[in-house]
Amino acid sequence: MAVKLHLQPLELLDLGKCETVGEIVDGMSRCAFGARMLGEVAATLTAWCGERDKPAIIFDGLADSPLGRMLSKKLVREGKLFSEVMTPEAYAKLPSRGRQGRVKRAVVVGGYSERHAEALYAREPRSTIYINPYDLCAPGQVKDGFYPDAVFADPHFIVPILSLVLDERLKGGRPTVGDLLEVLGNMPGVGVQVRQGAEVLRQMMVKKGIVRFLTLSGAMTIAQMSLVFCDMIDRGMVHSITSTGALMAHGLVPGLGLKHFKYNPKDNDETLAKAGLNRVTDVLEPETNFNHIDEIMSAALATFSGRETISPSVLHAALGKYLEQHYPEHRAILLSAYRKNVPVFVPAFTDSELGNDVYCTNKLRELTGKKRVVMDMEKDTAKLLELMTGAASAGIWTFGGGVPRNWTQNVSPLIEIYNNRMKGVKEGGKRLPMRKYGFGVRCCPDRPHFGHLSGCTYQEGMSWRKFHFNMKQAQIQADATQVEPFLVKDIMDLQDAGKLK
Length: 501
Known about the structure:
Number of domains: 2
Distance between the termini: 49 Å
Number of strands: 17
CATH topology of the largest domain: Deoxyhypusine Synthase
CATH architecture of the largest domain: 3-Layer(aba) Sandwich
Strand content: 5-15%
Strand order of the largest sheet: 13-8-7-15-16-17
CATH class of the largest domain: Alpha Beta
Largest sheet: 6 strands, parallel
Number of helices: 22
Shape: globular
């Protein structure tokens, strides 16, 4: 199948093999989603800026802003990596015949008026890179699952990364994530948000008696971030994981030595469907991967007689044990979680490939006269309560939002409700110690006015008594595949230097 369609395998991002910002971004280029956008644009710019005829920067922001000064001073005057910085208006005023001659290649940073868009869009294809959080680019340049020459993210975060990458690749620098964070501290927007997130995580890591929860949604594992989560577990950064079922299903793929592949827009979805290739935005998941997952799910489920009730965290531990016994050479989230005794909760378990497998297994058991495997979700609720109330303080890392985030944050209102309901009950009415989150880092591009769980703020959660009013927190409105590797690598570097104990 892969040979017939000439599929290109993706690669897991391995932070343990990366020392510099440039090496991390290079690894991102073989991942997916926002990480790939950043990695591929960095590769293109490295080629452009390494040539004699330098590209230009088209920027409509304030020249004296931190970003404006970085563009003009760092990248043009000092670095000599770009020829000039000009406004979209100045570019549009150039004689149409002379535009492409003067500006053969360009990077359009930030937004621009529709008054100048026509001149920008008239440029030769593949001669212009767009960096902005507004999905602005030439018509037809971006397609469903295909994003060439664009990074749809805040330039205050992306440009400092690209600046360090170009310095490393073209001038021999060796910038670390620590160097990046220093630069980001001088930037507004997502730039300073990421720096604040790193600061909160550092404080969370050194807090005594703290339990740290990780919540995941979106497509982080199919985006090839599985090893990043393995590092978080293996190095003791988190004590609990709450996830979507899909994340754990896709995360099993590398644990079995299997691959995801890069989507080619030349292959339409009908062709992919007939070939058994499931598309997740810009990634292909072969149906044969799920067949292998079904095999190990069947083996794990066979260890349960049906006389006992289980929960998703119990099933995930059984899967981790199976990986330990049969695939110990492949790193995987559930394998690391099993080895470190970190529970993996999936509160919306039926909404996943693994949930499908449990349903089908139970139907087969019914037909053959065997007892069904019964899921008792309250077992995981009890385990969550035990984790929360068993520690003096709590912190939460959140990538994305949705059910995993809300279920984990809901533990504080649950304690409050439980204590109120148990008043006056003589038997079994033990009062639980009240706990709220004192630390929080949230990385999600959604905004509050969309009105769903992924966008709600920590401030809003304070009204629900989920968080301490003086909690140490950072909220990063960005794509987690672009941000998470740098946050985790910062902690890894500090651990390796003996600065986090």
